[in-house]
Amino acid sequence: xxxxxxxxxxxxxxxxxxxxxxxxxxxxxxxxxxxxxxxxxxxxxxxxxxxxxxxxxxxxxxxxxxxxxxxxxxxxxxxxxxxxxxxxxxxxxxxxxxxxxxxxxxxxxxxxxxxxxxxxxxxxxxxxxxxxxxxxxxxxxxxxxxxxxxxxxxxxxxxxxxxxxxxxxxxxxxxxxxxxxxxxxxxxxxxxxxxxxxxxxxxxxxxxxxxxxxxxxxxxxxxxxxxxxxxxxxxxxxxxxxxxxxxxxxxxxxxxxxxxxxxxxxxxxxxxxxxxxxxxxxxxxxxxxxxxxxxxxxxxxxxxxxxxxxxxxx
Amino acid sequence: xxxxxxxxxxxxxxxxxxxxxxxxxxxxxxxxxxxxxxxxxxxxxxxxxxxxxxxxxxxxxxxxxxxxxxxxxxxxxxxxxxxxxxxxxxxxxxxxxxxxxxxxxxxxxxxxxxxxxxxxxxxxxxxxxxxxxxxxxxxxxxxxxxxxxxxxxxxxxxxxxxxxxxxxxxxxxxxxxxxxxxxxxxxxxxxxxxxxxxxxxxxxxxxxxxxxxxxxxxxxxxxxxxxxxxxxxxxxxxxxxxxxxxxxxxxxxxxxxxxxxxxxxxxxxxxxxxxxxxxxxxxxxxxxxxxxxxxxxxxxxxxxxx
Lengths: 314, 306
Description:
The structure holds 2 protein chains of 2 kinds. By secondary structure, chain A is mostly helical. Chain A has a domain at about 95-275 and about 305-310: MetI-like (MetI-like fold, Orthogonal Bundle), CATH 1.10.3720.10. Chain A has 13 helices and no strands. By secondary structure, chain B is mainly alpha-helical. Chain B has a domain at about 105-305: MetI-like fold (Orthogonal Bundle). Chain B is elongated, with a radius of gyration of 23 Å. Classes of the chains: A mainly alpha, B mainly alpha.
């Protein structure tokens, strides 16, 4: 296991080099160069030249990339073009918000998806199954941000039961933390819930046809115990798979949801940086996101071996 | 036998060809697939609804009661009336007309992104899967790189560099989605590559480009087609997301995303404005998914989920 982990981590290095080059190359796509984008309207040539020198843009592109990369490897992602704040500290201050949101979303998705999938998979063809399948299809198709808007409309504007915007940290007040994250997390959870439900249903229906389930039933084990002891154990794999598939999309979705609910997370920071063409910030966030997604994928792959020893061999 | 032979040449089969019975079955493969698709009620409903949406939105300039940017300040934020079936927005623009015109923009944008993804991903997937080796390895690493970012994040990062606009956004999205088409095509090509009939073609000296076009391509098309419909659903959602964020369709252009974005600003004064575009997006997405599911089931064992 440790060997596998090391091999996989080492394999990430070349990928990261290419990823980082791609991220840095984004600057080359800017029409006229980033200095023109930065200098504002009607800049003098002197001002543009001053910015070029300040940013080291007079160097050849590969040298610029190399300088950036060595800084990154020394833990320095650079400073914002907008307010000169370090990229690290900006991302670090938004990270707890985004992490809270994602974790809560995954918990909701796991609970709701497992319940739907189990209910459907234990009685295939029943009305419960059909209801659950229809629910999952609807969840797949409903745009998550629209779900968010409708939830705001119902629970914040009309019922005034929950806050529509803002964030309170967990240490300040766990209850307010939860109430501020409830609507955004529920709207983010729709698609993952549907994915988990579908995967679970498929896994459960196939497990139910196994001989050991027949044996368990034949020896008089209560159906609920069969479900808990034999079926649930196998349901972990589809949930983990769904999370792996969804992690990538979910991180993208936080950009929109944090914007709608005015949550000061990394997603909102990314959006603001894109809008203000704050390239060091955009590059830093992209790089951190890519590393996070690679680590999540690695964790998902490794957890297959844990949940299903049969996979380990391959 | 001559007849089935000639058909078999044009449409090689995925399943190993055993006896004559197999051949006969595969001759009518297209018709059998169509029959299976038509027997799938939800797929047919999805298909019909989708066609309806496409016709109504494509014909928007002809059949919409008002222009998408036709302003009437005296009649702003009206609820549903006989003149404006779905009411009007803050500038007095007719919501129904904007929905029809906006759908045209959103669906065309999604189509453009998926077209680009297919034009890039399909040939590269064929080449990678068929030839293998270094080319395949390089292409696969390139796909890894593009797929290590969330699609939306990478797209808006490209927009940050190039500047906003719907066409830019959709071209970027097409590039970002290319690996998803590539992966599916490469996977099926790898499977087809191992079939005996490919070995047979190679051994009689058929040139590679001919094998790719006449033998491999027809067999990977089902998988590509299924992926196409799912990608369309994702691309539609992505267009809406990007325009909602104000980085795609810019005002006064109506797209389902920009309408939703404006409606969100006005949610307290006119909540119903946010309802209609959302329903339109959800129905269109559902249709793409239903058609995709239907196609996958109809192609049956020939297509395994990638």
